[in-house]
Amino acid sequence: MDDDDLSDLYQEIILSHNKRPHNEGELDPRSGEAEGYNPLCGDRIRVYVHKTDSGLLDAVTFTGEGCAISRAAASIMTDSVKNLDPAGVEAKIAEALEMLTSKEEPEIDLTVIGDLAALVGVRHFPARIKCATLAWHTLESALKGEGIVSTEEG
Fold this sequence. Notes:
Elements: H1 3-19, E1 32-38, E2 43-51, E3 57-65, H2 68-81, H3 86-101, H4 110-113, H5 129-144, E4 148-150
Parallel strand pairs: 1-4
Antiparallel strand pairs: 1-2, 2-3
Helix pairs in contact: 1-2, 2-5, 3-5
């Protein structure tokens, strides 16, 4: 598959997750939640989590409004972390943030990271990176019991 075909595939994945997001809606009961806000483009999402007594993240959902990238990233994030233990969730968050923010071109294995790979193209548009990372930072805040995160904080 050449770069143009791959780029088209990634764009289709993002558009699909934006139009038909996975795990969208409030979660009840929940163990935690946090709100994320990106003042640069107005993205605002709320992430809800439910952990089992052993710490397994057995449910994660989101609500909110935003651009196609932020909504797709939130949808992809919920699929990527569901049913992981705390160490697995931390590793997946770190992997996603590294992939999206690293100065180095990441090694992408579609068979391992699935739809998350579609977000790698965002790296070529620095103004949109915060759109793609907002859900991941909001998930971190929800798991830590922090209420609000803004992309302007870091």
